[in-house]
Amino acid sequence: MPPDAGTEQGPGSIVFIHLSGELLDRIRTRTVPHEHGPLDHDDDEDGREAPPFPRAEDEVPESPPFVFDPAIPIPVELPPGERTLRPETLSPEMILSGMLRLLANAQEESGGPVLGGNPRWRDYYRSLVLALRPGILPELTGAAILKSRNGDFALALEILTALKGLYPGSPPVLLNRAMVLEERADALERAGQETAAEGEYLAAETAYGEALAEHPIPDTLFSAGQFFLKRRDYSRALVCLRAYASLEDQDEEAEALDAEKRENALVLVREIEERGLEDEDFRAAWEHIRGGREREGMESVRRFLERRPGVWNGWFLLGWALRRLERWADARSALEKALELGGDNSDTRNELAICLMEMNDYPGARRHLETALRRDAENIKIISNLGVLAMRRGNKGEAAGFFRTVLELEPEDPLARRYFEDSGGTDRAQG
User: Fold this and answer.
1) 392 in a structural domain
2) Which of 28, 96, 215, 280 is deepest in the core (most CB within 10 A)?
């Protein structure tokens, strides 16, 4: 039996139809592969499976048996470019996509419209989705992971947002979404799109906060701790890593812990505590400098260094601020102090190389960049700065090779593209 002739047109590509029990039974017995809609996904061409993100399928409670209610209209997603439903084209995938889109975009106002529907119908739609596709959680989680690994972050997030609507408050779903947002921010930063990356990092920070608020699983605590470390938010990192490390003493959580990760968490906790990195002045310095307020950041980090002059992280922040203010000699001194105290990493050497480059110490700059590159072979900033250095020394052929490598890693990198296409561009190094 076809859907009612009078279908209600919803916003976008959603229409609401009334199904008969006969049609529902017929749809439930069909096993047509998903060929339509935004949740479409394909395997890698070589058939590889995506590496696992957190997937706690076993933690999802069993749903009660689905009871069909013909009075409730069903959202259907139309094929791209179509505005009305042709009954002969109706498929289970169109119904699944419609309900998942509705759940993903549901508004929270009680009694208000939800893409033309009623908020009270959400639980019914969730039950219907699970009746039509009982294994949808691992299926779509795997699709989202695969898309993220292939760099299709928009589709991965669309899938995870749909799962978030289907499984509200699910710890694995919330964590996977935060991790994909973080990966997209990392990709933007690698491509030199720092403003866009910062926006994505803030979105990831919000997502991690949501995941931590919903009875976090061990993986959430560890991943959030690593994320806050990256963001130099050491106080929040400390809370997460301490909580993760302490789970070993709780029998119900012990099996979920990885011994190596727990040891890593304990080491990081000790380092943060010993260096005093949760200090408010250190946090303020990072926020100020990252936000372009270098002078305010220098005031904060100098107060920190008065209390902890032997902590390399403080000297790095000071050198970073001074370098951005183009005080090359002062920045070099601070960064060399950071190296001396144990901050020998690619970021410190990259910042130091920029200072030396501006002071016309090209051999010194190259030495630090090459040392950094040996440790971090795909760091685009370092490769790009080697290209800038080659340009300054008049070696355009060598510079083109470096920028070609950058574009192979990140085809959208704006600086490398400009250099590669126009050798007369402004030679500005990347910090």
Assistant:
1) yes
2) 96
